[in-house]
Q: What sequence folds into this?
């Protein structure tokens, strides 16, 4: 419990980075709608309240969800004491996190709902990187969001894992949350130092992309250590590329 | 006193991360593709008790998010990793926090599957176990290729059980990495296209595309495998294959 408090203080004292973009209920059209795929735009990943588990239940902390479906809403809050909720999003390796949104209700004049986005290593040591507060009680339910595109948060999955912490401070239904949304962009691996193929040297305009395909096991080239980048591709070869790239097609 | 504890914690972090790196025998997976391993990280937050009364506790080791069940000993927590359908499970590594080493108390991961309806739970085999390590940081890597387990959401459900003998905070799991390989479906017995018979060198791959609905061929029951593809056709293939592009 003491450890939890210490963690709380260090997180709370951390500088908030990124800029507060929006604080509103409706319409969401205030923000550009992400395109949900690709390397040059934002995709969305939703972590619903149901995916969050409590950091500690040994001191009697419990949570409850609002009375969905009778109340026609679904939000989670802690009962009696502040609740520390954690969840880990499963984003594609290499993706860069660009956007962080908290969807919550705050009807408490003092307490808030607070969300942190941390990078935790494989042993669970976390760096609190980005935080935000809930909407204030003048606008009871809505979202707050941060543009985190300049924070350099790249998904690793191997030795580091993104972890989201949401704190419902009041311990009553006055501070509750529905979930968190992350925005991210897919990334093509940076070009490696050495070339796999003789006819695609490191200064070839498509070098980065051909190496990415080669290193993913999607192509082994056209023989003799070449890739034949300028040769027209046949429909048959295209089928091999796509089937291998996507691991098609399992029932 | 508080400051001293924090310093000890910091020292622990440095030591453990160094030792983890030194033991890091398995090459870093390339994270995509069919000829090598990709990673799926099973976070401790993915491990939940299968009876709600048990609860969980994290952060039992200084500054670290490591999890154990709150009032249950043994196989109390489970996690369901969401690997791609058809992927072949190739390996697992687990990270533990253990201040109860050499006590005969179990701290480990076990692999299971059930039928699609949750019945017929079947023990696939043991994952990594921590026996003698003291502190956070031990990880054990296991090759699972001999298990020959393929993800198949239609027929069964794969899951991990955390087996933690102590529920007092002296034993906890810090995280699990699963390694898997994407697979192209095996070649079907019959051909979809007249010009791509079962002995065509690309038969397996063209059938995979056809079976996924990405292509219906070039007309007249043919696929035209040797015809150069146009940039326009390429756009159709990619957009259909990736389900592009939704706002």
A:
């Amino acid at each position: 419990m003491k450890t939890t408090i210490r963690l709380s203080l260090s997180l709370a004292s951390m500088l908030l980075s990124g800029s507060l973009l929006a604080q509103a209920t409706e319409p969401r059209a205030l923000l550009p709608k992400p395109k949900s795929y690709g390397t040059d735009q934002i995709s969305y990943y939703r972590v619903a309240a149901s995916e969050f588990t409590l950091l500690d239940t040994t001191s009697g902390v419990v949570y409850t969800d609002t009375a969905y479906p009778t109340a026609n809403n679904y939000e989670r809050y802690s009962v009696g004491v502040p609740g520390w909720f954690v969840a880990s999003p499963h984003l594609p390796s290499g993706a860069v996190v660009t956007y962080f949104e908290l969807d919550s209700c705050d009807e408490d004049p003092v307490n808030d709902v607070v969300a942190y986005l941390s990078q935790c290593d494989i042993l669970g040591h976390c760096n609190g990187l980005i935080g935000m507060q809930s909407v204030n009680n003048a606008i009871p339910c809505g979202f707050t969001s941060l543009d985190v595109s300049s924070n350099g948060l790249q998904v690793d999955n191997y030795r580091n894992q993104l972890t989201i912490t949401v704190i419902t401070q009041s311990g009553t239904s006055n501070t509750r949350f529905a979930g968190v949304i992350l925005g991210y962009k897919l990334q093509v691996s940076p070009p490696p130092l050495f070339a796999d193929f003789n006819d695609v040297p490191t200064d070839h305009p498509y070098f980065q992309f051909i190496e990415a395909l080669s290193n993913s096991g999607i192509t082994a080239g056209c023989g003799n250590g070449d890739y034949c980048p300028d040769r027209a591709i046949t429909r048959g070869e295209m089928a091999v590329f796509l089937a291998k790239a996507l691991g098609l097609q399992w029932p | 006193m508080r400051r001293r504890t924090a310093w000890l914690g910091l020292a622990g972090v440095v030591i453990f991360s160094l030792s983890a790196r030194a033991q890091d025998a398995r090459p870093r997976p390339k994270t995509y593709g069919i000829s090598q391993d990709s990673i799926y990280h099973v976070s401790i937050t993915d491990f939940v008790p299968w009876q709600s009364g048990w609860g969980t506790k994290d952060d039992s080791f200084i500054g670290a998010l490591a999890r154990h069940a709150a009032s249950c000993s043994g196989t109390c927590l489970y996690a369901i990793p969401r690997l791609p359908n058809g992927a072949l499970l190739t390996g697992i590594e687990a990270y533990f926090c253990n201040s109860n080493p050499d006590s005969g108390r179990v701290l480990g991961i076990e692999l299971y599957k059930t039928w699609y309806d949750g019945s017929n739970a079947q023990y696939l085999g043991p994952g990594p176990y921590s026996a003698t390590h003291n502190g956070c940081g031990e990880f054990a890597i296991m090759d699972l290729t001999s298990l020959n387990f393929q993800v198949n959401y239609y027929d069964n459900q794969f899951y991990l059980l955390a087996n933690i003998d102590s529920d007092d905070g002296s034993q906890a799991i810090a995280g699990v990495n699963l390694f898997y390989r994407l697979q192209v479906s095996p070649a079907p017995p019959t051909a979809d296209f007249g010009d791509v018979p079962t002995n065509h060198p690309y038969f397996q791959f063209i059938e995979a595309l056809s079976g996924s609905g990405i292509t219906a061929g070039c007309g007249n029951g043919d696929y035209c495998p040797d015809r150069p593809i146009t940039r326009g056709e390429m756009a159709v293939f990619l957009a259909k294959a990736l389900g592009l592009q939704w706002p």
